[in-house]
Every structure is written in C-alpha cells, then in structure tokens.
C-alpha cells in the first residue's frame, strides 16, 4: 500500500529525529521552559523580523487555534471563517466548547473574502447578536489554495476597519511559503496578523507547532490558557527541539526544504494527472491536491493506494485527496500516475 | 407614537393581571413547586392529549431553547436550524455558551427542510466532526411563516431516520395555532416533538412559557438544568398563575382568544397594504408582517409609529416588521394604513 | 399552615403590585430599555451617591452573581468565597458552568476573612494554578450575619493589595441595611465594591434586583452578557417598575420599610426563643434566624408551620431556618412562639 | 546542577527512544488508528485481565483526567476529590472549564476517605445543588502516598452505595505498583474503577498515557471527546509505540523496571535523610519524597541541586520535593545526601 493519505502517516524527518536523539539525555525544566524552546522562539522571531512578539511551542494545530481564540475573545464574541475551515469542519466543535460561535460562510476557492466579513456585520445588530470580533483564515486553505499577498492585506484592512483580530492557521505554512504561487513571506504575516502558527507536525516533526502572538493583550497569561486547554506537555522540551531543527538555517532551513519537496512531489502528480485530462476539485499549488474521479476509478486505486475520499459520491463522481509528505518519492508518484493511467482508460 | 414594535411592548392582558392580583397573597412553596404551576402543567397535558410528558414553567423563550438543548445534547453534538432561527440570530451565542454548535442553513421561507438535514450529514464524517443530533424549528418562524402539518411530519420522519431529536420553539405558538393557514394542533406537536414550548410572554403574559418535554431521557434532572441555566425564579408561582389564566377553558382559552385577535389585526394590516400594492419580505399568516418600503417612506412612518427595520437598507429599500399584540386596536391599524397611503403617493 | 419558609412565599407587596397595575398598559421598548428601568437606575445612583456607575435591572440573584462573575473574569481566573455562599451552596454549579472555580473556605460566622484571601494565594503558584481574581461576599450572609463596616473595608483593602475585584451579593440587602447591627450604608458599598446588587425578590418584589457595576471594564458589553446568560426579559419594564416602587422616597423608601418590618418580626421571634433558652446555629440580626431544636420538636412544629430544616439531623438535633417577610404578622410570630413553648416543655 | 526537580526533566528512556527510532519510517493511519496503539491497548487489557474494556492512547495526564470527567458527567454533576489532587491544585481550572465543580476536602495523608464522600452528600440537597457523581483519587497521591487495597475497595464500596463513578489518576502508577507498600494490582483497578490511566510520561516516555475505561456508557463516542478536548495527535502512533515499549514483557516490563529503579533511588535518599534525623511532610513510599528543611539549608542546596519548594516558607521551615527518575543514579543520590549532611550541621 502506497500512502497518499496525509503528511502525517510517517514519523519524524530523519534530521528532526536526530535532534531528538541528540538532546534526549539533557536535563531541563519542564513545560516548555527550556533552552531549546527558547531558541526555537528566537528563530521564529528572526524569520518574521520582529522581536516584540511572543512565540509558544504548541502540541498541535487544533490547540493553537482553539487556545488563541479562547484567549482573545470575550464570551459574547465570535470568529468569522469559511465553512471549510479546519476549526469548523474538523475540530469536533472544540471552538464552541470554549463558548464561541464560528460565523461561517461558503468560501470562494476555500478562501474568505472581505465581503463575507461585511456580511457578518449585516447580520450583527446589538446585544441580541454575537459580535464578530476575529477573522480566522488558513494559509494554505483546507483545500490547498493560498491567499495572495494582496488578498491577505485586503483582509487585514477590513479587519482594521471592523476592529477585528486576524488569525492565520498555518498547519501547512511551509507548503504555502514555498509553493510556486507564493508572493508573501513570514514577515508579512508577522506584520498583519494578531496571531498565526507555523506548523511542524505536517512538515516533518512528530508533534509541534510554533504559535506567534503579536498582540500583547491576547498574549496576557497565555501559558495559563495553554494549561487550561490541556495543551501543556511535561516534557515540553521535545517540541522546542523539533522546531529548532526545522527552523535553524534561515531561508533554506529544514522546514523549507521539506516543504519544497512536498510541493514538488504534488506538482509532479498534479501535472501528470492534468496531462491525462483529470479535473480537480480545487486549484491547489501546495502539497494537497484534489482530483475528481469516477467511483469505479477510486475503488480501483484504493486497492494499492491509501488516500481520502474528500466528499461523498455524487452522480458517480468522487473528489479525492492526495497528500505528499517528506517521505514521498518520485517512484511513489509515478506508480500512482501509472495506475491512474491504467484504470482511467 | 403608535406601537407596532413588538408583542411585548405592553404589560399583561387584563385577565392575566387579574389572576396575578387574585393570587398575590397566597403563600406557596418557591421555585415553581406550587399549585398554580402544577395546574398549568395539567392544562397543557390536556391540550396535547398526553399524560406521560413533563411540563416546566419557564421564565422566557431563550431559557426554554438553551436549557432544552443543553439538557439533551452530549458535548460533541450540535443542533441543526435555519440561519434565521432565534437561537442563531437573536440569542447572543447562548447556545454556544453551553458548548454546542448551531449547524445552520439558509431557510426556505424561514423554514428548515428535510434536505438541509441530509446536507448536515453530508458534512458529517467521524470523530473529527460535530454530530448533528437535534433539529430545532420555530412555529411560527422568525419571519412569521408556519410549517404545515405535512411539513412537520416530514421533518419528524427525517429526524427518526437520522436518529435526531426534534425541538420546536413556540414563542408565538398561539399565533401559529390560530392563523388561517394552520392545519396542525398541539396534539400533533405532542406526538412528533421531543420538546416544544407554548409562549406566554408574546401572548398576553408578563413573563412565562410552558415547556413540554416528551422524551424522559431529556427530562431527567431537568430542574437542575433550569437552576444551572439561571432560569429558576424564587417566586416561580407567578409563571404558573399566568399560564393557568391563559390556558384554562379549552379550545377557546385566553391564549387562543388573544392570538386570534393578534392575527386578525395583522391580517387587516396586511390586506390593507396589499391593496396599496405593497410587497412583502415574507408571506406571514401570523401576527408579524414584513412589508418592504422605500427608505423615505420608512423614515416618514417612523415619525408616528414605532417598529423595527428588519434588515439594513439595500438599494434604497428597507424591509420592516409590524407586530400586533393583545392591545392593538382596529384604530391603530387603520391609522397606520392611512399614514402609509399618504406617504406612498 | 403558617409560613416561615422563606421571604418569597407570598407575591408582591401591595404597593409594588399597585405600581405594576398602574403601568400595565403603558407601551415601552423591550428588554429593559424603558423609562421605569432608567428611573430605577437613577434612584440607585442617588442612594449610593455616585453618578459614574452602571445599574442593570436583573431578573434574579443567581443571574446577578453569575453574569457579573462571567463578565469580570478571564477564563483561568476564579472567585474566592465562603463555602456557605449562595454561589457555592445553592446555584447548582452555575458559576462553574461559565468555566470558573469557586475557591472556597469554611467561613467564620458565614463570613470570609482577609486571612482566607491570603490562604488562596498560598495555594496559588503559576500557570498551573487558577488565579484568585475576585472576592465574593454576601451581605447579609447565607446564615443571616452581617459584615461590619470595618470588616468590609478590611476585605476591600486586601482586595486592593491582591489586585482582586470585590463583589457583594445583596439578595437581602434591605435586611442588612436596616438591622440593628448595621453600621454601613449603600454609599460604602458603592465606594468599595466593583459590583453589588440590591435584592428586590426577597424584599417585596415579584422578581427583580438592581445590579450596580462601578468598574467600567466589567460593565463593557454587559447587556450582551445578560442576554447570553438567559437573563434578559422581553417585558423588562416590569423589573424597572418594581424597583422604582421599592426605591423611590429616599431613606424611608418601601425597600427599607419592608426590610425593617422583616427584621422586627425576626427579632421578636428570636428574642422570644432566647427567653425560652433556645440556642442558635448563627447569630443573625436580620430576617433569617436559625434556632436549633431536638428532632421531636421539629417534627411537632412541622405540623402547623412550614420552614426549612437547615442541615441534616445530627445526634438528635436539627438546626432550622425561620424567615420573616413583608407579610409576616405579629400574630404569626406569636403563634409560632406559643407552639414552641408547648412542645419544648 | 543535579536534577531532583521532576521525573520529566530528561527525555525518553533509551529503550523507548529505540522503539521510536525503529518505527519512525513505518506508514500508518493517523490519530491513534494504528497497529502500535492497538497493540498497546491489547497489552493493557492483558495486564488488567479484562477484554471488555476500552483503552485510549492519551497525550498527557491532564487530558486523561479532564476528558474522562467531561465524558462521564452531565452538566449539573461534580467530582469529589482531595484538595491536593492534581485536578484541583495543578490544572488551572481545566475541569471547571468543562463546567464541572471539584467538590474538595482536605485529604488525610493526601488521600480521600469514604467519610468525605458522605460529607459531600451532607452538603447535597436537591435541584439547587451540584450532584456529587464521581470520586477521583490518585494512586500514588500528589504527595507520594498510596491507597492500600483495603482503602481502594472501601472507596469503591462507598461509590456503589452512593451511585458514583470511580476514577483513578495514575500519572505515576508504575511507582505505586512497584513500591514496597503496594498490596494492589492493575487487576484490582480494572475491577473497581470506571476509569483510570497508567502514566507513561513520568515513567520513561516522551509523552503518552494509557487511559482505561471499563464503563461502556462513559466510553461512548470517547474519541469525539478526545478531539474536542484538543487531545488527538495527527501522529498518534508515537504514543502507541511508546506505551508498547513500556508495557510488553508482562510483570517485568520496562514500565515496572523503570518504576522500581525510581522507587529504589527514592528509598536510598529517604533512608539517608532519615538517618540524619530529617523529618518529612508526607510518608511517601514512591519516587517523590518531601523532606522538611530550614530555609537556610534549602537555599544552600539550591546552589547545586534543582528541586521544588513544595510550599511557601512558614516559621523558617520549607517542605521541598525530591523526585527520582529513570536517569537518577546512586551517585546523584549520594551527592545530595553528602551535601545535606554538610549543610545540616
């Protein structure tokens, strides 16, 4: 069985694992109060070009999203997001568990637009309605698309106009930053967002994401919020060690190298499918692609390849998701392409 | 200023007030454990033709909705409702405050359809997604329309198929039951819903709604839920007294008499406006109507009449809401019609 | 059956009822945005001698307590209170339902001391512990005792030292203010507390309490919090009308006259019992007294009088609670005293 | 600096790290749905001698405690625990964040007694009070003591009598099972508890605990609860791999070998201190010991050794905590003893 199921079906990238082994017998204080976590935070600050921010080593993406939202919002406030957003579609109501509504709209290519934010305010009235106070977008989106620099700044401007926070879910931030379409940098995110994270888990780490908070009010007592949200690890050092391994080395750090490989493998796959005339559910330039196949083709492919059916069958057609990871090889891609070719005919 | 603002701008209907005065100096135990609350519960059971249900005297509609939902759902479950539903649009996130998502869809004439319930399950996958476990509809809807008996039973059937609870918000149930289009009875609701309430506040009471629970599992420890949801009154008797006054007398009880009057006044207003060629935001047969006027007309009417702008202006046009109540007179209606006639020309 | 069960077993005091009748057919805007609610707020401000505060008409005491706490605290903060406090002992976990801990200590005469606040900080460490951020006391306490002016200011000083909010539950504030031991005024409370309420329900109203917030940060969007906490009434006017009736007239307003009567009746009862050598569970100068009787005496009294057993029987002895209300007459008291005399011998 | 700070200051035990390395490049499905997690679950079932239980791989102890409580309790129910319990003293209100109260009592030697459970019911009345529905104890306790088999069964019996669930926090279960005083087995826990966990993090793993649920009602949709509580890892396999490494091999598995080593080092330290006449805050037979020193001694030791001050100084005296781990050597212990000897004189 060849895996195109996800970018988390393997363990850590060998260089990340090496760092874990090397630091395993160092003593340190617990709960992320160690030299590696501190160093990883310093590396993030360098990458975004700001010293006046806070960086927290987090155990996963959902903890980043939910803890940030819970720390930022007062009880009667909600967060505006596309209906396809991970916080809405794949976190089992963890945001609502903290008492906050996700005011959702059907995205365009999986993306939120400034118009949707205005629409949220059309629905808003007074003390009888939830206050739209935060915008949450994902870069890349749940369906692999990315916001252009202009789109990001347009959303930022609308947030300013509406007095809202801007948060960016970066579970696959590496893939977004290094894809062909990318015209934004981490410095842009540091400049426009109140908070965002750089994902490690889907980019070569076992666990771990670096959450950046640029708004000091939201950062106030944030470690209390992490603990209360069940997100603090006794051996927190292991997150710092992994992020350190991913982020040191500047522009060409391991995070970028892995992401570029993922994107390259996805591109090879996408272009191969396009050549065969396969159509796609979304135009993704990153490491997740969503071809659409007849049901019979899907069933045939499932015999040798492991991947997601992205949506239920409709009129005999099923969109599927292929994801590439640090371990995906050209052979893996080519074997999939060859199999598709066979069954499509 | 003539009020078409709401059906809660006046105090109690004189017969309700009379009951409060008459019982004011009776001693009773607190928190709804009194003879009047018990008697009101008995009257409700007679009206719905079932003895095997539980009836709770509640202080308001939002407490009914939220307490029922919180009692029925496990933490990871959500409630399916139209986006216009009161629980979504006018309760400031009180449902989310209990940790539950409102899975919402744009309604058709303000109503939920069985297809929307299926759509909620298209979005559902597994442990990563909120479980759609309850359907919440309003009779009449937030925009005054009502579900026909067939529509109610179709939703009930879909709930059975999907293993979901059915809840009905009846803030203006009297108006629904007594309007020209009504082809359902309280007995139908008692037969199909796991819970619903008969609203008093908007039907002549100062406060008070009768919440019916037909599902004993949801009713388990329900008084603990009321207290925890801040909905238990020390002098709970006053709710029982008012509901008793509204509900005794069978088919022709005060609740129905008031509702019929409200509907009659609304009809007079609607037909008068229709004659002038006014169009409507919704086809409401109940005591709320939603004519659409040019902005200039709305501003002119606002000088002498108090009412809601239902939505923000768009292209110079504003939908407004006129509501009739137990105190609305034919003179009130005719004075509004006369004024519209003047300013429309 | 003669009622010493509670101060909420009767309806409204006749003067309060008169006000409800007189204003019943006035139209007004809903949700507490009416002239009577505004006027009641103005009266409260006069009584506490501050214009720069906010006054909210609330439906009950538990809604006051819980909504204030939920508005004031960030998620990881808790409230320090005696274990006998109403929020801990009789609100079914409504505070915890908003996510906050009640850090509780056994009170001394039902009262919190500054030492207990220090003790809460002994338990406090860092991000692993709940931050003690509010002190909540009741005046009078759950067992009828009152804090002296010195005690109140000592707690205020400790709150300042510890950077904590001070909140005062005043369900029976009238009784506290007018009892023989009282050496504090509403002006003192307005000067020292971030929030407190003056209870109406147990002082002659059907429902209604006036919640005062002196801290503008806590007051921010407070009406959103009320709505979300299920505490906003459509016909909110009826609370304003009742508080207005209770509070107009300055020092000798109806609230004080009722409270003085309640205290006088309780004193007559207490002194009568003391003469018979009865001992008490608490030294209450207000309208709740807690004599201790042998079980056999309690059972005998229960035949003609309705009251609470305050705690389970222990060694044949039961503390009970007698409460006087606006409707308690000297005859009621004397009949109880006579009966006790009979059965004690 | 020699670490007696905690049993989580080092990384993984070498054998655990070896397992992670060996399995790192195996593909698997995510979120704990992998062969290693399944196998670890099977090993747990063998150890407790029951097939009819469910075992979940959890990321940490707080997630075990809070997710279990949130899954088991209805909104108005609370959990009874000693005030020193981790859920009360070191989880920043994470239990209250799910809406549940911890009804706490001062423990005896850090332990809960059946009498305290009765006391919780003395405080319980009716719909105005939180229902005590679960007992939570820790084995070993927060101060290192352990419940004897008799004590465990006495609590179990009281839970049965009171219709309560029993939950056991086993963050250091290995240390409890293998200490000199232990007269209970995992089979006992499987027989008496509705849920408990076997801790990995403090017993040689990087992260990971095995949560056992014997009550199928609580287990219903438990994976939805884990996700909603932010506790589901994309690369969940790494927990399974570690628990597998710790638990395979039966009685003499790695978990036990590490725990025995920890206990042996702690005993060497304890006996060394006892010989010098040092007294202790608690009589712990496990790998945490709590000697009491004059402040000057503590300050002196802190120059070369890293450990916790367990409580604030009082009268010049400070209780401290020394913890031994898989990496603690006899030399570490002896160097600490030597230093104490020097400074005590």
Explained architecture:
The structure is a homotetramer of 345-residue chains. The first copy, chain A, has 345 residues and is α/β, with parallel strands linked by helices. Chain A has helices spanning 14-23, 35-48, 61-72, 86-89, 94-97, 114-123, 149-162, 173-178, 186-192, 216-219, 222-228, 237-247, 254-275, 295-301, 330-344, and strands at 2-3, 54-58, 77-82, 102-105, 131-138, 165-169, 195-199, 209-213, 279-280, 288-289, 291-294, 305-306, 308-309, 317-323. In chain A, helix 1 (14-23) packs across helix 12, helix 2 (35-48) runs parallel beside helix 12 (237-247) and helix 13 (254-275) packs parallel to helix 15 (330-344). Chain A is globular.
Portion in strands of chain A:
15-25%
Number of strands of chain A: 14
Low-confidence stretches of chain A: none
The biggest sheet of chain A, with number of strands, parallel, antiparallel or mixed sense and barrel status, is: 7 strands, mixed
Average the pLDDT over all residues of chain A and give the rounded result: 97
Multimer state: homotetramer
- The number of distinct helices of chain A, counting runs of at least 4 residues, comes to 15
Q: Kindly provide the radius of gyration of chain A, computed on alpha-carbon positions and rounded to a whole number of angstroms.
A: 20 Å
Helix content percent band of chain A: 40-55%
Instruction: Tell me the distance between the termini of chain A.
Output: 22 Å
Order of helices and strands of chain A: EHHEHEHHEHEHEHHEEHHHHEEEHEEEH
Strand order across the biggest sheet of chain A?
A: 2-8-7-6-5-3-4
Structural class of chain A: alpha/beta
Give the largest interface pair and sizes: A-D, 52 and 52 residues
**Shape verdict of chain A:** globular
